[in-house]
Amino acid sequence: MLALTILGNNSAIPAFGRNPTSQVLQTQDDIFLIDCGEGTQLQLSKYKIRRSRISHIFISHMHGDHYFGLIGLLTSMSLLTRTQELHLHAPPLLKEIIDLQLQAANTTLTYKVHFHPLNEEGVIANTNKISIECFKVKHRIECWGFLFREIKKPRHIDADRVRSYEIPASFYEQLQKGEDYRTKKGTIIPNEELTTPATKPVSYAYCADTIYDESLVEKIKGVDLLYHEATYLKDQHLRAADRFHSTTAQAAEIAKKSGVKKLLIGHFSSKYEFLDDFLSEAKEIFEETELALEGLCFKV
Amino acid sequence: MLALTILGNNSAIPAFGRNPTSQVLQTQDDIFLIDCGEGTQLQLSKYKIRRSRISHIFISHMHGDHYFGLIGLLTSMSLLTRTQELHLHAPPLLKEIIDLQLQAANTTLTYKVHFHPLNEEGVIANTNKISIECFKVKHRIECWGFLFREIKKPRHIDADRVRSYEIPASFYEQLQKGEDYRTKKGTIIPNEELTTPATKPVSYAYCADTIYDESLVEKIKGVDLLYHEATYLKDQHLRAADRFHSTTAQAAEIAKKSGVKKLLIGHFSSKYEFLDDFLSEAKEIFEETELALEGLCFKV
User: How far is A43 from chain B (nearest CA, A)?
Assistant: First the structure.
């Protein structure tokens, strides 16, 4: 299971109490932080998410509303004498900026940061249970989306059955992988008699900031949860295109074409105080849409 | 008159709803921003201080809790299409960091920033009504205090008197400076008969982050309002010294020795939830002490 908590859902300028982009994806073992706009460390405190459990941070691009809160978070982790290593996946220039800021403060962090520059599409990280890929999206500057997939889980062994067939423990791993068992006498016992299927692995795609781009469809096909920005209402599609952003209708169109289970929209422009129209416009095209409201937790 | 609003009063890590250091000093014409910790732009909105009226920003040193909010503020000003020039007084390295961040975002600000690197003590800016000096304080890295002084104001001309003595308008400026008037017949009319004194210029000293340092006394002697950090309660004086910070008692001692009218203390350590003891400890030594609580406005 994955649990996604929204920390910030506003574009560029913070407005109407809405914060710049940041999200937290929790797995059983880890917390992943996705983008880190100014004030993210305050939002983490507000929603009682433990900074110390963040193992990986992913930064989509170098617009400030997606990373200006990072240096403060890294520094605070150090002031709290963190020792666990941290993995930071981000555009190459971010390392230079962080290094310069640490140097200016004459500070050495108390923990090791493994900086992984985003260079090409593909798998960028693997934990025991999750595989993370990055993919390009189209924005005014280089920008990356992230795809989190649970790794296919082993089948559950039926303890009573394996005992009754006297199957040796040394064969359990093969059973979990789905292999049939062959007895000494040569009888085949089908895997389905000995195991039950694992729960289906789930997936989450985060598309960061992007213009309407149908080439996304192939990359995110069939994910359980899709976050796609919707900076503007649909009547502003010219402005959206001009600024390499999307509208409600465009986000919903991508969700529909990709056959995802659920769509979350966010990155709302500061010109909108109320968000009701965002939801209704997207739902006209893709019913399973929700607003990425701050503090909400979406279970996948 | 000067009006000082506290936007943030916490040290290093934001805690208990307290923000990192930032203050706003308002004059009749200008708004000066003093330090700019993460979240300052949100605090400006919260306390309804107009970003557009900020003419000068002063950054004391390169610890993040004093400047991590700056780049977000500068960027937002640009997104709001500011055109007025902005003066930024800060340690030289800050320019490099800002330039790198703007370059990474492929952004050019919509307004001109005049960057004035802090290099030596003395006057660093003058508006029509205020003169601003910087002075060194002792911290773990190079750190500057700022002294804001109203410029001596011209004496008020008594309209009835100058008319009755038939004094020509061309002499008014000299009258405002305090000169006596000599009539054509050679009679001296003393300035005091023609003018009344201007209100006394007031002054504010901001001492940023500093260890207890008596050499400050000469620099801030007799100011109307002094901000001196008090990161710790007095029993923590060893820790304070070790980290180049001060205690309540030390801040009060400096205020007393400097003969200031009022002392504000702030930069409270994140280890303290309640601040009552800060006030009582400082008042034992210097009665005219107040806590720099966020949102409070102190008129000088």
Answer: 11
| pLDDT tens-digit readout, B167-191 | 999 999 999 999 999 988 889 999 9
Closest CA to A292 of A257, A271, A259, A265: A265
Q: Is A69 on the interface with B (CB under 8 A)?
A: yes
Average pLDDT, chain B: 95
Domain extent listing, chain B: 3-152+206-299, 156-196
CB A7 within 8 A of CB A70: no
Distance between CA atoms of B23 and B265, rounded to whole angstroms? 12
Give chain A's residues under pLDDT 70.
none
- pTM of the model as a whole: 0.90
CA distance A102 to chain B (A): 9
The answer to whether domain A3-153+202-299 has CATH 3.60.15.10 is: yes
Whether A123 contacts chain B with CB within 8 A: no
CA distance B163 to B169: 10
Helices (H), A48-92: 70-79
Decide: helix, strand or coil at residue A173. helix
Q: Which of A18, A94, A101 to mutate to test the interface with B (most CBs of B within 10 A)?
A: A101
Contact map slice: B 1-30 vs A, CB within 8 A: 12-15
What is the rounded distance in angstroms from the CA atom of residue B288 to the CA atom of residue A165? 86
Nearest to A123 by CA among A148, A98, A87, A143: A148
Phi, psi (deg, nearest 5) at residue B58: -120, 125
ipTM higher than threshold 0.95 = no
Contact of A296 with A260, CB cutoff 8 Å: no
Tell me which chain A residues have a C-beta less than 8 angstroms from the C-beta of B63.
105
Q: Mapping DSSP to helix (H, G, I), strand (E, B) and coil, where does residue A276 land? A: helix
Q: Which of A14, A93, A101 sits opposite B42 (nearest CB)?
A: A14
Least Cα separation, residue B133 to chain A (angstroms): 23
Question: Tokens 């503007």 map to which residue?
Answer: A232
CA atoms of B79 and A15, how far apart (whole Å):
13
A45 touches chain B (CB under 8 A): yes
Beta-carbon contacts of B285 under 8 Å, excluding residues fewer than 6 positions away, are: B249, B252, B253, B255, B256
Judge: A97–B94 Cβ closer than 8 Å, yes or no. no
| Beta carbons of A59 and A91 less than 8 angstroms apart | yes
**A142 contacts on B by Cβ (under 8 Å):** none
Instruction: Give the phi and the psi of residue B43 in degrees, each rounded to 5.
Output: -65, -35
Q: What is the pLDDT of residue B14?
A: 84
Q: With the CA atoms of B282, B283, B284 and B285 taken in that order, what torsion angle do they form, in degrees rounded to the nearest 10?
A: 70
Residue in B closest to A70 by C-alpha: B68
Q: For B13, which of A64, A69, A76 is closest by C-beta distance?
A: A76
Looking at beta carbons, which residues of chain B come within 8 Å of A42? 14, 38-39
At the top level of CATH, which class does the domain B3-152+206-299 belong to? alpha beta
> Which amino acid does the sequence have at A18?
R
Task: Report the DSSP beta bridge partners of residue A268.
Answer: A10
The encoded tokens of residue A266 equal 């966010």
